[in-house]
Amino acid sequence: MKIIFMGTPDYAKVILQHLIETDNMDVVAVYTQPDKPVGRKKIMTPPEVKIVSLENNIDVYQPKKLRDVDVIKELLTIECDFIVVAAYGQILPLEILEHAPCINLHASILPQYRGASPIQQTLLNGDKKTGVTAMLMDVGLDTGDILKINTIDVGDDEMLASLFERLTDCAAELTIDVLQNFNSYTPKKQDDSLSTHCGKITKADGEVVFKDATTLYNKYRAFTPWPGIYLSSGLKLKNIALEDSISKNELGKILKIEKDFIVVGCERGSIRVYIVQPVSKKDMDVISYINGKRLSVENTLS
Fold first, then answer.
1. Which own/partner pairs from 25-28 qualify as long-range (CB within 8 Å, at least 24 positions apart)?
2. Per the confidence metrics, is the pTM higher than 0.85?
3. What are the structural domains of the chain?
4. In this predicted model, what pLDDT tens digit does every residue of 233-261 receive, in sequence order?
5. From the CB of residue 50, how many other CB atoms can be counted at a distance below 10 Å?
């Protein structure tokens, strides 16, 4: 079968690789976002999906706007049986949706967490289960009819990188399943009354306060490595753990100092802090940090 693939980040790259490696799957074109400047030197860097495509001699298209008339006309000349979309980053216009069945792989159990950051939202909410939804795309944002959902359990201390990797593998397997067995699945409409939405993550989302330990810890799980979590002073908390979730304490007070960590109180619960990063400095162990600041038990970490 002939497939047009649309995607941009690592999540999409792994799915594309599975398609390329699967018998009877012929990826005839790949659409991805334009190259972007990266780092201090602003070096133009291609998306991972583009690199994989070129390595496999697949035609790559990088339109700034998929809705441009000329872009649509060009795509409609490419013969295909399916269009597979995974974290592409652009809305598909109706003309493309009508060109072939458009299957999207979204990293949540839809209609929960429609939008740009479903994996982070899963961790922020402390969910015990998540998954990947294969759906038929429509003109809405993650609102299409569901073909199949594969679910996985989420560990209590699981970090973003681990969950991202497991969901990516889940999505890659689901893609092949749905394409090979497309006619055996009956599309099911989503219940819009149960829908929730999650937007793009910004640097400002990483600021935390010692109010609720579970909330703070879940932000750490969701926002590591980017944008990270930090206090209003700019001090970054680079390695932490949940100490308890129910005790009542003075906000930010150092409750205990051990050999490798300190325990900091929240209004509800407390956390362990192992590694911090002061503003414009390198990571350092928290014991060295509080010694340098002459902080002790009963002082406030800042």
1. 25/1, 25/176, 25/179, 26/1, 26/2, 27/3, 27/53, 27/56, 27/58, 28/2, 28/3, 28/4, 28/58, 28/59, 28/78, 28/79, 28/80
2. yes
3. 2-198 (3.40.50.170), 203-293 (3.10.25.10)
4. 999 999 999 999 999 999 999 999 999 99
5. 22
